[in-house]
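User: I'm putting together notes for a lab meeting next week and I want to include a structural view of one of the chains we've been expressing. I don't have a solved structure, so I'd like a prediction I can at least talk through. The sequence is below, exactly as it appears in our construct file.
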Amino acid sequence: MDLTVIVVSYNTKQLLFECLSSVYSETKEISFEVIVVDNNSTDGSIEMLEKDFPQAKKILNSENKGFAAANNQAIRIAAGRYILLLNSDTKILDGAIDTIVKFMEKHPDTSIVGCKLLNADGTLQYSCRSFPSVWNLFSESFFLYKLYPRTTLFGSYYMTYFDHETARRVDVVMGAFMMIRRDMFEKIGLLDEQFFMYNEEVDFCFRAHQLGLQTYFVPEARVIHYGGSSIESTEKYVDQLHSTQLLFLRKHFGGFQLFMAVVLKYVGIGLRVVVYFVSGLLTFDVRWLQKSKSYLKAFVKSW
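Assistant: Thanks for the context. Below is the predicted structure for the 303-residue chain, given as structure tokens.
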């Protein structure tokens, strides 16, 4: 079999329906299977799967195991030569999966490949980034990537300077759509389950990079990514995002580099507490105040 498509779902019934419908309707030139891992949804997702997608294999968890662990469950039983990790809040456009498989067939030096992600309105969603570094964390912590997004000096972390119109080798592609050669898992192992949600793709691509394996971004394949569908609250999102970033730093950095990186992460989180709080006061917008509160809780918890 050419490909195994793995979709992890948690209370995303309607989005999951649209995602799987697009996979089956837009993937016509390869042989593939779909494995859906449900992390104990309570919104009728399981019933919908049984009714509308009986051909898909299903793994039904009795608890929310997180993104990495759930994907690993499916990877262990996958039959495809390639494995696609696909978010449930995505919609495949114009044969994007076929396009990526063809690219990997023509470029056997590629190990991980991502596509161009789009917002619901069709605008560009930044789809790749550079690995964390002391400089990138400095640019992020002090909002420099926001002030000077089109410069490689300050925009390198999120690659905001890149127009996303050319195929190129990159450090990281976003986990919303990440196609991987099956033998990759034999070389570097499965996803690290310490990452409950977020930054597991950064860790995986970094481990591949350490072995000299190549990650590519391919703009000819386009996928809508709605984003944030399984997030229960801003507070949990902020907590998971920054705690997993700190986990990555402590796992892969050491010595003075680790010290500086962690300091910059705390400075960045603390600065956002202040900036968002002041923004809320000046604009009378309670959402900024709630965001400030979420970052304050993340700051305290991370200690």
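A couple of points you could mention at the meeting. The chain has two domains: 3-127+164-225, 234-302. The chain has a mean pLDDT of 95.

User: Perfect, that's what I needed.
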